[in-house]
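Q: My labmate handed me this sequence with no annotations at all. I'd like to see what the chain might look like in three dimensions before we decide whether it's worth expressing. Could you predict it?
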Amino acid sequence: MHISAKVDYACRALCALAARDGDALTAEELANEQDLPVRFLRAILNELRRVGIVTSQRGNEGGYRLARRAEEITLGEVFRRLEGPLAEVRNERPEQAIYQGAATHLQDVWVAVRAALRYVLDEVTLAHVLSGELPTDVARLLEVPDAWQAR
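A: Here is what I predict for the chain of 151 residues:
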């Protein structure tokens, strides 16, 4: 799975907003806090506004806020709203991929990969990330012996 800069920056900015508990932050403040490029972040925030994850307000008290509580926004939602489906095979959903012969059951693997991504990303909210208290099943994945090792 590739996590784009767009999704990474969005999640970082959203966590910063969640930490402010309703206070508005400008794109510049968010960019400075998270060490992000402000022009790219502005574009991301505008997209997040269009899809209903943040709201914006102009003026002295302006800036961006979460549109909903941090407990209601999952990382899976952020990913899908910005990038589309969690898992695709040749730009199709895994259940649409058809294989023959020796590769017949490869589709099962791709569907399982998507299920694993959902298992994590649709359970973890901004509030979980902010608190560091991940859902138990997700936290257990961090305890897998080689979870932190690159392959």
